[in-house]
Amino acid sequence: MDWGIKNRLSRLIQPDGRCFFLPIDHGYFQGPTSCLEKPGETIKPLLPFADALFVTRGVLRSCVGAVGSKPIILRVSGGTSMVGKDLADEGLTTSMEEIIRLNASAVGISIFIGSDYERQTLLNLSKLVNECENYGIPVMAVTAVGKEMEKREARYLALCCRIAAELGARVVKTYWCEKDFEKVVKGCPVPVVMAGGPKCKTELEVLEFVHDGLEKGAIGINLGRNVWQSPHPVAMAQALHAVIHKKATVKKAHALFKEIENKK
Q1: Is residue 26 included in any domain, yes or no?
Q2: pLDDT > 60? residue 148
Q3: Which three-class secondary structure string do you get for 35-53?
Q4: pLDDT at 198 over 80
Q5: Residue 236, in any domain of the structure
Q6: Which of 38, 173, 258, 264 is catalytic?
Q7: What is the pLDDT of residue 19?
Q8: CATH code of the domain in which 40 resides
Q9: DSSP string spanning 112-181?
Q10: Is 258 a catalytic residue?
C-alpha cells in the first residue's frame, strides 16, 4: 500500500482497527432532511465521538469548521433526487482538483448493483479509483439499494461488496443483515463498515445490530439518521463509541445511553 493511502486510511481507521464515520451527506438527494436542516449545529456536539465525517463539498465548505476538523470522507457521486425517476442514475459530481483542494482523507461513491444503472455506477467507481490512486486517496464504495430495501440480504450484499473491492475500493460501506452477515464480510477482501439504513425504532435496536456486525467482522459504522435523528443524539453517539472503541457489550452501552439521557 502506498504511503499516502496508508496515511489517509490511518486518519479514518483508528489504532484499534475500528472506526465511527458520521454521514451527513443525505441532503444531496433528500434535501433538508429532518434534524439536518442546519448540519453545522447538528454535528457540533457529536464530533468528539466520531472519527470522520462523510459529507458533500457544499456542506463541508459552508457548515464545517476548517480548523481542527475531523478527517473528511467526501461524497463525490450524485445527480438524482427523491422525486426523480431513479436514485441509481448517478454520476461523478466532484473533480479531482476539488478533492485535493478540500484535503479529503477519502472519497465516497454509491454503486447500484442489480439496477438499470449497474454498469454506469460501477464504471463511475472504476474511473474514480483510477484517478484517486494517482494521488494516494482511498475510495469508499457505498453499496446502495435505492428504495428497494428488501435487497438487504447476505447473498446480494456479498455480491456488491466483492465487486466493489475487485474494482479497487479500499473500504466498502454496506448494510448489516440479520442472517449470514459474516459471509458478507469474509467475502470482501477490504474493510467493511456498516450503514444505518432506515431509522431504527429504538436505541437498543441500533446498539444490537452494530455490536453483532462488529462481532462478525465489520470494522465500524457509517451511521447518520440513527444518531442525529435520535431524541438523544449525544447519548446515542457516546453509546456507539463505547461499543466500537471500548468493546462495550450491548447491555453496558445501553446503560451508558440511559445514564447520559437521564442527566439531560
Answers
A1: yes
A2: no
A3: CCCCHHHHHCCCHHHCCEE
A4: no
A5: no
A6: 173
A7: 98
A8: 3.20.20.70
A9: -TTSTTHHHHHHHHHHHHHHHHTTT--EEEEE--TT-GGG-SHHHHHHHHHHHHHTT-SEEEEE--SSSH
A10: no
Handedness of CA 246, 176, 170, 124 (dihedral sign): negative
Q: What is the pLDDT of residue 263?
A: 79
Q: Are 239 and 211 in contact (CB under 8 A)?
A: no
Joined grid coordinates for residue 105: 482523507
Does the pLDDT value for residue 92 go beyond 90?
A: yes
How many domains are contained in the chain?
A: 1
- Residue 242 and residue 248 in contact, taking contact as beta carbons nearer than 8 Å: yes
> Do the domain assignments include residue 169?
yes
> What band does 261 get if pLDDT is binned at 50, 70 and 90?
confident
- Average confidence score pLDDT of the chain: 94
Decide if 201 contacts 163 (C-beta within 8 A): no
Q: Which three cell numbers stand for residue 120?
A: 454506469
User: What 8-state DSSP symbol labels residue 29?
Assistant: H
How far is residue 170's CA from residue 243's CA, in Å, rounded to a whole number? Answer: 24
Residue 246 in any domain: the answer is: no
Identify residue 69 by its one-letter amino acid code.
S
Three cell numbers, residue 5: 493511502
